[in-house]
Amino acid sequence: MQKIRAGRLLATATSMSLFTVAASADAGVPMLFVTFPAMVVSLIPIVLVETVVLARALKTRAALLAKSTAIANVVSTIIGIPLTWVALVILELVTDGGSAHDLTTPLQKFLAVTWQAPWLIPYERELYWMVPAASLALLVPFFFASYFIEAPIVARLERGFPASQVRAAVFRANVASYIGLAIFNIAWLMWSIEYAPRM
Q1: Helix 81-94 vs helix 32-41: angle between axes, to the nearest 10 degrees?
Q2: Domain-by-domain residue ranges, the chain?
Q3: pLDDT digits (tens, 9 = 90+) for 53-68
């Protein structure tokens, strides 16, 4: 009963926090709705890459690890990424990241796509480059969330290997897949700066 009440309180607090951020930022761009569909679409290639890296690290056949890798990635993508984003939005809110600032200096621009990356402030004329830049910045917390969720799942499903070895292999696998995601985001950012229409 207490767990249910705690869950309801957390959900209410989260909803209120998100509403406050949306109101103070005049809607803005909630980056979960930009990054999450891409994460779901890229699940298959990510699972393939991570399975191959895991197999090499654990010195076994990739086919034997495909199921556990897929399960771990589905859990981290469907549950881990949204929860991480909610935590980042709350952090942005409580540290005054929900307020608009000038974008006249390189530091201000950097903060706008890192500190404010979870829910971008609507700097309308700058969003053409800010959205891909924020997506790139969010890969850092998403990487750690993915690793800390996937490592124990794979270790539990693959008990034939030492847990420490599995965790190290999962870390390497996530590095490989996130390098691919980073390359995509960098290409997207460069294309946006060069070709995307300005508002």
Answers
A1: 160
A2: 2-195
A3: 999 999 999 999 999 9
Q: Please compute Rg for the chain using Cα positions.
A: 19
Task: Round to whole Å and give the CA distance between 82 and 89.
Answer: 10
Using 50, 70 and 90 to split pLDDT, how confident is the model at 142? very high
Query: What does the alpha-carbon distance between residue 199 and residue 108 come to, in Å, rounded to a whole number?
Result: 20
Q: What does the pLDDT read at residue 26?
A: 53
Distance between CA atoms of residues 25 and 59, nearest Å:
50
**CB contact burial 73-105 (16+ within 10 A = b; e otherwise):** bbebbeebbeebbbebbbebbeeebbeebebee
The region of weakest confidence among 21-30, 32-41, 109-118, 167-176 is 21-30
CA distance 74 to 152: 14
Q: Give phi and psi for 29, each to the nearest 5.
A: -125, 100
- The runs of H, that is alpha helices, within 59-126 are 66-75, 81-94, 106-112
DSSP 133: H
Of 52, 69, 72, nearest to 61 by C-alpha is 52
